[in-house]
Design brief:
Strand content: 15-25%
Number of helices: 8
Shape: elongated
Structural class: alpha/beta
Distance between the termini: 59 Å
Order of helices and strands: HHEEEHHEHEHEEEEEEHH
Radius of gyration: 20 Å
Helix content: 25-40%
Length: 248
């Protein structure tokens, strides 16, 4: 099978993988079935499995669309500041952004994860619409984004640290795709699983996602039982013990 035709926005040697590794069958569906508050259950499961914290809270990565939740493998992009003066870059149209190459390489179900630059937009509305068309379920951006109304209109949720109308076109440069990135102090590799909701964004190492899912499913079932017990009138002391893992 021939290699996909590239946009040329970034050197081929800086694309570390042509596609993000896929999770095992049923994993994405399993995490989605955990419900609207999945990140809490995932975070607890990672703690108990001894997996270093891979959670970034919504006080850092804020969702542009409240009520959204996504699960999918990370398609990673790393941006840095350009050295050229941005106004000179604008005059000369020196644009070194390459998230469109990532969209070009996307497999349906991917989550675009950008290790970006503060104070400017790392992706806008046309980029979001392109990602949506390519089958991406959303994006995580450690840095600014813009055109939020546009991304909302095409149902492309984004979690970002900032909103900024200032374009990154003349200010930043994409230096790597599908290599390791740092998101809020968490190392994320291409193919690691992203679970995001209103509370947090969780990054699960791809070699541990089935372990995390199995424990998370057990916890979700136990939580359902506790919620029913609350509705049935269980005493508060017993709720407290069960919630914190103590024997009732």
């Amino acid at each position: 099978m021939s290699e996909k035709r590239l946009t040329g926005r970034i050197a081929r040697e800086n694309i570390k993988l042509m596609a993000a590794p896929r999770p095992p069958q049923g994993v994405i569906e399993g995490f989605l079935a955990l419900g609207t508050d999945a990140t809490g259950i995932v975070s607890d499961s990672m703690d108990e499995l001894g997996i270093p914290c891979g959670v970034v809270g919504a006080h850092i990565l804020r969702p542009t669309m409240q009520g959204s939740r996504i699960v999918g493998p990370a398609l990673t992009v790393r941006n840095v500041l350009q050295r050229i003066d941005p106004l000179e870059g604008a005059r000369q149209h020196v644009n070194r952004m390459a998230e469109f190459e990532a969209h070009n390489l996307a497999t349906p179900g991917d989550v675009l994860v950008i290790d970006g630059v503060s104070g400017m937009s790392n992706m806008g509305g046309i980029s979001a619409q392109t990602g949506k068309r390519q089958g991406e379920v959303g994006a995580i951006v450690f840095g600014g984004v813009r055109d939020v109304g546009h991304s909302r209109s095409v149902d492309y949720p984004i979690w970002s640290t900032e909103l900024s109308a200032v374009t990154g076109k003349w200010r930043l440069q994409t230096i790597e795709i599908n290599g390791p990135v740092q998101i809020g102090g968490v190392r994320v590799e291409a193919g690691d699983l992203v679970v995001a909701d209103d509370t947090s964004v969780c990054f699960i190492p791809r070699d541990r996602m089935t372990d995390v899912l199995a424990l998370a499913q057990q916890k979700a079932e136990a939580e359902d039982i506790r919620c029913k017990a609350i509705d049935d009138g269980i005493p508060v002391p017993d709720i407290s013990k069960a919630t914190y893992g103590e024997k009732t």
